[in-house]
């Protein structure tokens, strides 16, 4: 494939944005597949640490060093929305924080602004596809561009590109364990650790948020379930319409009792067709030890897809980290580069 430059507006430059920048600059030599991608940011925005805008191109390695040293960027001359509406770019890379209470905003507005101008949009943020997949996919189609979000579910493990590759199959439902923090916490409860101690361990290991509510209350799982239901079952659903129960009320005693009875407690996500509509739920469930889900322990995640002609078949992910997430964004960017 010939190397093509992609001019990018990057919104969000936290863990994922910085890992992406590191893979494209200082780590680049390690990844042969990146030889085909030249990403040239012309704007980088953060929420509270300023932004950079330079139509001539931003030095990504320098921007990365600046944020690593915890230096803020200057106050940008434009807001992200103004930049997306006026600058000359090929792709929006949306890596800002998920908001459930604001129904996916402002990421959703960022993606809509890019797609409606005929620019591609790539995001790891679950908000846009969880709250407005139908609208955004239709907009992308109308304007002949891509709306891609491989990292939004299972951190870049190929799910949506696999879905695009399936020909003639009709997905009838799915189930999965999608939230690694709550799965890790449930595994620790089995060892007798309390909920608080298990959450602190997950935070110390660097994968649970300082505020783990979105994970423990099932919102992260509900957002991922909504995306999968929207993409594979055309559900037109959002996380607020999913029956949801998190794991906060679980105790080491309840988890130990399940194990004693030959079962394991898991935060299971499911969607299926029923009476002409799609139903979806996120709930702690006891699964028998011989069920594959009982073997998804610690930080692993899994998706079981049911189709009319094949399977059910599984996609498993072991110990995801930031590189997996950034790699999903890079896979999407390579799809965009190929399609230009
Ligand atoms: N971490 C993972 O492994 C992972 C996996 C899958 C998906 N994701 C998703 O990927 C996205 C990025 O994750 P992350 O771990 O990089 O989060 P993060 O470290 O919290 O970084 C978020 C970035 O977005 C910026 N931001 C927040 N609100 C903004 C706004 N309104 N406008 C512009 N920028 C804004 C933040 O700026 P300030 O810091 O200045 O506020 C920060 O630069 C999230 O949506 C997350 O759910 C992450």
What does the model show?
By secondary structure, the chain is an alpha/beta fold. Helix content is 37%, strand content 22%. It folds into two domains: 172 residues, Rossmann fold; 147 residues, Dihydrodipicolinate Reductase, domain 2 (2-Layer Sandwich), CATH 3.30.360.10. It contains twelve helices and twelve strands. The chain binds NADP nicotinamide-adenine-dinucleotide phosphate (NAP). The site of NADP nicotinamide-adenine-dinucleotide phosphate has 25 residues, from helix 1 and helix 12.
State the order of secondary-structure elements, H for helix, E for strand: EHEEHHEHEHEHEHHHHEHEEEEH
User: Separation of termini?
Assistant: 12 Å
Morphology: globular
CATH class of the largest domain: Alpha Beta
Present as ligands are:
NADP nicotinamide-adenine-dinucleotide phosphate
* Strand order in the largest sheet: 3-2-1-4-5-6
Catalogue the unreliable spans: none
The chain-level structural class is alpha/beta
Assembly state (oligomeric): single chain
Overall tally of structural domains: 2
């Amino acid at each position: 494939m010939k190397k093509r430059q992609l001019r990018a507006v990057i919104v969000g430059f936290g863990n994922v944005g910085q890992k992406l920048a590191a893979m494209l600059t200082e780590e680049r030599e390690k990844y042969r597949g990146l030889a085909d991608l030249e990403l040239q940011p012309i704007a980088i925005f953060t929420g509270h640490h300023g932004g950079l805008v330079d139509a001539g191109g931003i030095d990504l390695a320098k921007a990365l060093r600046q944020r690593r040293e915890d230096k803020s960027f200057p106050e940008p001359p434009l807001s992200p929305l103004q930049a997306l509406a006026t600058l000359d770019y090929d792709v929006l890379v949306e890596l800002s924080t998920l908001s459930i209470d604001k129904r996916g905003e402002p990421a959703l507005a960022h993606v809509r602004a890019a797609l409606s101008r005929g620019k591609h949009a790539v995001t790891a943020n679950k908000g846009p596809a969880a709250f407005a997949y139908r609208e955004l996919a239709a907009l992308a189609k109308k304007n002949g561009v891509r709306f891609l979000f491989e990292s939004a579910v299972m951190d870049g493990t190929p799910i949506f590109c696999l879905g695009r590759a399936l020909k003639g199959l009709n997905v009838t439902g799915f189930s999965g364990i999608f939230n690694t923090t709550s799965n890790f916490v449930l595994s620790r409860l089995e060892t007798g650790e309390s909920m608080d101690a298990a959450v602190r361990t997950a935070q110390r290991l660097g994968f649970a948020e300082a505020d783990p509510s979105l994970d423990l209350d099932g919102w992260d799982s509900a957002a991922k379930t909504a995306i999968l239901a929207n993409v594979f079952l055309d559900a037109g659903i959002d996380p607020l319409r999913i029956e949801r129960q998190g794991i906060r009320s679980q105790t080491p005693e309840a988890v130990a009792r399940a194990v004693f009875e030959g079962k394991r407690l898991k935060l299971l996500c499911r969607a299926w067709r029923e009476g002409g509509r799609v139903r979806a739920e996120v709930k702690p469930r006891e699964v028998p030890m011989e069920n594959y889900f009982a073997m998804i322990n610690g930080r692993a995640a899994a998706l079981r897809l049911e189709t009319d002609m094949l399977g059910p078949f599984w996609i498993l992910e072991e110990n995801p980290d930031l590189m997996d997430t950034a790699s999903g964004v890079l896979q999407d960017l390579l799809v965009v580069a190929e399609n230009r």
